Amino acid sequence: MTATDVHPLRELLPDGSVFDDADVLEAHRRDRATFCPAGTPSVLVRARSTEDVATTLRWAHENRVPVVPQGARSGLSGAANAIDGCILLSLEKMDAILEIDTEEQIAVVQPGVVNGVFAAKAGEHGLFYPPDPGSRSISTIGGNVATNAGGMCCVKYGVTGDFVRGLEVVLADGRVMRTGRRTAKGVAGYDLTRLIVGSEGTLGVVTEITVALRPATAQPLTAVAFFPTIADAARTVAGYLGEGYRPSVLEFMDAPTVHAVQRIADLGFPDGVAGMLLVQSDRGDAAPGDLAAFERVARSFAATEVVVADDPAEGELLMQARRLVGDAHEKLGLATLVDDVCVPRRRLVDLVEGLTPIAETYRVQVLCAGHAGDGNMHPVVAFDSSDPEESARAQQAFDAIMALGLRLGGTITGEHGVGHLKRRWLGEELDEAGLWSQRAIKNALDPRNILNPGRVLPDAG
Amino acid sequence: MTATDVHPLRELLPDGSVFDDADVLEAHRRDRATFCPAGTPSVLVRARSTEDVATTLRWAHENRVPVVPQGARSGLSGAANAIDGCILLSLEKMDAILEIDTEEQIAVVQPGVVNGVFAAKAGEHGLFYPPDPGSRSISTIGGNVATNAGGMCCVKYGVTGDFVRGLEVVLADGRVMRTGRRTAKGVAGYDLTRLIVGSEGTLGVVTEITVALRPATAQPLTAVAFFPTIADAARTVAGYLGEGYRPSVLEFMDAPTVHAVQRIADLGFPDGVAGMLLVQSDRGDAAPGDLAAFERVARSFAATEVVVADDPAEGELLMQARRLVGDAHEKLGLATLVDDVCVPRRRLVDLVEGLTPIAETYRVQVLCAGHAGDGNMHPVVAFDSSDPEESARAQQAFDAIMALGLRLGGTITGEHGVGHLKRRWLGEELDEAGLWSQRAIKNALDPRNILNPGRVLPDAG
């Protein structure tokens, strides 16, 4: 198709939905993954209704054209990068909150609504939407569903999928399917809701989401503890949770990350520490006791300093430090590769200690922060991307971290997804029968392989 | 095959695994469903290892022989009933608790372990396995996984699937697949764990289950409230939960059920009530406040009497009343058809009030108890099964209850599964694209249709 042709979808979709200007397409070619190829799309469709999505997929199916669904393109695995000749199918304009039902404690939203916008609106109704990926101020619920996104609250409340009751999904051939239910429970047929959640746009395009909400919780109390070794911090995590405490946040930052954050916001953190833990309890009257127990456990593992915030505002300041980690890493002036391994809690110490030899072997910086309570760490490889040789070493270090996670009984991805970035590694994590099953399901639901082809599943053979 | 033939599986499996005595087969033909056909099996295999299961399925796949997996056969939907010529594949002897890891708060079990046995063992380690189907003293974890079983704790803690982290599954052709993970989180590939959970033996045979456990909770406090109308009880449920309380139990019993229980265990329940609610809070020091709030809400909806148990033992006695419901219904001297609809909480009142006209129309008794906090009710049609005409009316009443549940925005099954009993109704609940997707997945994973064929999915066309 040359630039002067009219794309056939223009005839089928409402005015103002189909874009093929080169600059628009260029601006939509990539998500936030590092080292993932992005092709040249043929067209961008901004869907405004389920019917727009169905029309697009019906045409794509008939014409065997690949479709890449996109939300806010804040993903970190390349799942939303363009494929040569593809239709970029943006759901961003389908951003309505259709219903918040306070009595049933559920809501119905379109996929394009931003997580933070929705959570705030639920809060106005006295309700709580826990899934809080680091990207929540920009990422969409649809994108969160596509990756089964996590966040800081997961340690107590679970991940996105734990809050999804039902979906409206457009299948590869344009047919519209409803999965799941509005009710608290339901076992009518296979759990297609959970199959679609986390499938990264490869099995269907989600056009409506019914989520469960919780009653608002008490304002959390916050504490931080500083440790002379990373091992002490990691053992505190396992020890505290092992005693039966269920904090609403339990985060880790290593020394280079603490220093990077200090550089952009002086929070008065002490020098000479190897790692820091940040903990919250939202159990109201029980919260002070929860934090006192945390202090006791932390000190038993050699914590040099434990600060319990006296009021929620001070606690919010400490949380802000954790939220600045991404920015702080970016401000190092280096390219970053963000990993996402998740290991059993008692192996946290081996994971975090294992990063030093990896950094030394591949001569790159490796910083680390993450959701310690879940064992879900985000080691960050920082490198000079203008140096091809260093870039290659960074990629090797990134791979070595995943290999370490698998050796420790963990997974290559706790919450970011496989996308393009880790598809080769999926074959390392799954066994042959598991890979076969995944491919069989993909082929059954998308026999022409038009939905985000080449993502998630590694090439066969 | 005549009785003197040696079944080919005898050559392939360990001694003492293969049974074809007529009395053994007869004793294993049925689960606890009413009105479900049971065929004549060719053989019973008692698997003692994953390898036994794999060998059995490999042979069945090669020879296109249907396989019906069985646990304790305590299911209520006919999913474990024999099919003519089938292999009954019993997992009951695979009943080991392989591991309880107190630090990670997970356990690994074989499918044949009885729920109550496992929960008690976890309790000895200070851990809590919440899923508590009414059958927990006899049903197996494997069966609970097959149906995604619920119970009384679900209102606060969720269903079986919420606690399953990973599975070992033997595929239809005998290959062994591991799904999921041991870690708290993981998004590597499609969520096959959740796809297998609730699939009632039609997609694979589960041979090992990794479950999440929780720290033990405080001894719960218990209260009961009696209401002059069912509507008042139902409104109390919606009102109490709508205020943000999260009871660990919130159960309903109607007057005929209360009377039936009184008949087998005099609990001193008052006369002249239309319905009763039973509530628990396990929040330790916060529990008395939770129950005081319940009393306030119940009285605002005209509760005639509210009893708060002063100590856990008295509370346990009240819980016992709820656990006796099944026995009490059986002791009516009638056959029973146990339904399992789940509706939005605010429609509970319409569901329970709608049972009276159904009972009148079809001239059968309809009693009702259930997990009110989840909107998951178990209306029980009681009838004289020696009267074919009354039996037919009972079946019609049973169907009318499902139709009512669907009209109220609910589902035909909250926790018992579809099995044979409700497969026709699955087509009423799911849309065409949903049914197509379910069939496509079944066909992809079991192309020869040997795994529990004819269960869950309605016949096409």
TrEMBL record, chains A, B:
Q: Key word Flavoprotein present in the record?
A: yes
UniProt KW keywords: FAD, Flavoprotein, Oxidoreductase
Family per record: Belongs to the FAD-binding oxidoreductase/transferase type 4 family.
GO MF term list:
FAD binding; oxidoreductase activity
Residue stretches making up the FAD-binding PCMH-type domain: 37-216
Q: Which Gene3D superfamilies match?
A: 3.30.465.10, 3.30.70.2740, Vanillyl-alcohol Oxidase, Chain A, domain 4
Record-linked InterPro entries: FAD-bd_oxidored_4_C (IPR004113), FAD-bd_PCMH (IPR016166), FAD-bd_PCMH-like_sf (IPR036318), FAD-bd_PCMH_sub2 (IPR016169), FAD-linked_Oxase-like_C (IPR016164), FAD-linked_OxidoTrans_Type4 (IPR051914), Oxid_FAD_bind_N (IPR006094), Vanillyl_alc_oxidase_C-sub2 (IPR016171)
Q: Which cofactor does it need?
A: FAD
State the organism named in the record.
Saccharopolyspora shandongensis
Q: What is the designated name of this protein? A: Glycolate oxidase
Is-annotated flag, keyword Oxidoreductase? yes
Which PANTHER family does this one have? GLYCOLATE OXIDASE SUBUNIT GLCD
